[in-house]
Amino acid sequence: MKNTPFTNIHTQLGAKMAEFAGYNMPISYSGINDEHAAVRNSLGIFDVSHMGEFLLKGEHALELIQRITSNDASKLTNGKAQYSCFPNKEGGIVDDLLVYCIEENKVYMLVVNASNMQKDWDWIMQHNTNAVEMKDISNQTALLAVQGPNAVNAMQQLTNMDLINLKYYTFCKGTFAGIDNVVVSATGYTGAGGVEIYFPASFTMGDESQLAAETMWHKIMEAGAAFNIKPCGLAARDTLRLEMGFCLYGNDIDDTTSPLEAGLGWITKFTKDFTNSAALQQQKADGVKQKLVGFEMIDKGIPRHHYLLKSADGNTIGHVSSGTQSPSLGKAIGLGYVSIEHASIGSEIYVEVREKLLKAVVVKIPFYQG
């Protein structure tokens, strides 16, 4: 099991630790509800250094990205980022990812899920027929997400980069907390605003290099102290993203789910050819047979991953992909795939929990409207 540069801090703070995607990660500190509320109302800090980062360089870098991702990366200019996915050849998704344009047409950073790092690397390599330079910088990159409505104001104290005017899905690169070549982006996974901070996992700070990443953590905590910043774990990250209806790979999307079924048509651009694009375009023309929907529980109960979804007469119509008790809404919510005839807003569906059918209703996402 791998550690991140902040594992010592997590254990010193008494975080509940567990294995996630091969990493020893903090699940919670003061409790899910407390951490969730901190991010929704002020700010929190997440260690997400387990994520993977790949650099693609060269005159054919954009061409490669265009062939293997569903979104149109040709629209990216320096300092812009894009949400996308790698479609596979069978109609499913290899992974979802972020594409950062470092230098237009020449240098890009792909940010991928920790659990899929090797799979993604192999997938890109398989399609790299024009000798695009590839570099896996995952182990050399630390990543902290500072999220919440007060995050930008707090972090602005640590840099001359203009974070206040940093637009959604853009990034800047410069000096942050005294460290050079730091990338600060606004692509948050919580729906609460904030920034993500990419920096070298090991760098020199005075005479100390080994503890430099920890120094970055402490500087961020000091800058956020006036706003009651709280360290947050993966459990709160999950409830925050679910309230926004954001997909989690391995739950809501995987090798068998079509991006069109998952509601990701907005990142599936048929203005170019990409892996399996012809089949996906035909699926769009024919209409999907199942769809990822959001639902709220009417009856008391928590929907869990893989629970069956049924119609009023007890027929199976799909399954739950993600579910939780929403801290912000005070009710149980979930995402799940249902047959298309049960996917319209207001449809009553039933979650099978311990052989009982609990009523739910399909609702518009995001669940949390702010």
Question: How would you portray this structure in words?
Answer:
With 370 residues, the protein is of the alpha+beta class. The protein folds into three domains: 7-48 and 139-241, Gyrase A, domain 2 (2-Layer Sandwich), CATH 3.30.1360; 53-132, Alpha-Beta Plaits (2-Layer Sandwich); 245-363, Elongation Factor Tu (Ef-tu), domain 3 (Beta Barrel). The chain contains eight helices and 19 strands. Strands 10-11-12-9-3-13 form a six-stranded mixed sheet, sandwiched between helices. The chain has a six-stranded antiparallel β-barrel with strand order 14-17-16-15-18-19. Strand 6 and strand 7 (107-112) form a beta hairpin. Helix 2 crosses helix 7 (234-243). The chain is globular, with a radius of gyration of 21 Å.
Helix content: 10-25%
* Sheet with the most strands, sense and barrel status: 6 strands, mixed
CATH class of the largest domain: Alpha Beta
Share of β-strand residues: 25-35%
Order of helices and strands: HEEHEEHEEEHEEHEEEHEHHEEEEEE
Structural class: alpha+beta
- Gap from first CA to last CA: 37 Å
In brief, what are we looking at here?
The chain is an alpha+beta fold and 370 residues long.
Any chance you could write out the topology, listing elements then pairs?
Elements: H1 7-12, E1 16-20, E2 23-28, H2 32-41, E3 44-47, E4 52-57, H3 61-68, E5 81-87, E6 93-103, E7 107-112, H4 117-127, E8 133-136, E9 141-147, H5 151-155, E10 171-176, E11 179-185, E12 194-200, H6 212-224, E13 230-232, H7 234-243, H8 277-286, E14 290-297, E15 308-310, E16 316-326, E17 331-339, E18 348-353, E19 356-363
Parallel strand pairs: 3-13
Antiparallel strand pairs: 1-2, 3-9, 4-7, 4-8, 5-6, 6-7, 9-12, 10-11, 11-12, 14-17, 14-19, 15-16, 15-18, 16-17, 18-19
Helix pairs in contact: 2-7
